[in-house]
Amino acid sequence: MDVSEAITSRRSIGRLEGDVDPKVLEELISHAILAPNHHLTQPWRFTILTGPARERLGEFWARLTADERGLAGEEREKWIEREKSRPLRAPVLIVVSCPVDQDPVRAAEDHSATAAAVQNFLLEAWARGIGTMWRTGGMAYHPEVKRFLGLDPSDLIVAMLYVGQPAMAPPKARPRELEKAIRWVTE
Ligand SMILES: Cc1cc2nc3c(=O)[nH]c(=O)nc-3n(C[C@H](O)[C@H](O)[C@H](O)COP(=O)(O)O)c2cc1C
Hints:
Blueprint (H helix, E strand, L loop, with lengths): L2 H7 L6 E2 L4 H11 L12 E6 L1 H17 L4 H11 L8 E7 L5 H24 L3 E5 L2 H4 L1 H6 L7 E11 L11 H4 L6
Antiparallel strand pairs: 1-5, 2-3, 3-5, 4-5
């Protein structure tokens, strides 16, 4: 599969299963971090959660948010049951983060480089038949979740990357509007 085909055929895959070889994951990440990076700051951090680590994160998140909402009794149990399963939506969950520099220009550029690394990962994974889903959501922005993951609460979680073997057909493409995206400036 060439790059154009990988870009045009890639889809977010919501249902993922099976396993992914850790060596393949490391290879994908070693290629992801070849993304353009101003001043070679190498801001990206890939925190890879597999197996029970995903369950621990789910439990932590479910109880944290149940407490924050002051839930009790049956309502709390239902909430916890649903929320704790979130990190289990794939065999591998990669939290891709970067520090947020005090200099807003460097912070923006580090974020850009990290997002570019995420896209590299998505594309090569796709070309190798591995499914991915880039998510963020409440978990990605909660300082206590970052602490739980061993990150600094001030870090930015750019992606909660769900990775696994596709367990569904790729969804229909969601078209983008080229006319809105382009403006030619010629004189
Ligand atoms: C920064 C970012 C955050 C995202 N967060 C979520 C998310 O929380 N939940 C979700 O279902 N999809 C999320 N997505 C994926 C988009 O919804 C998805 O890319 C879009 O629907 C287009 O589908 P495609 O990737 O198959 O082209 C996120 C994408 C990006 C770039």
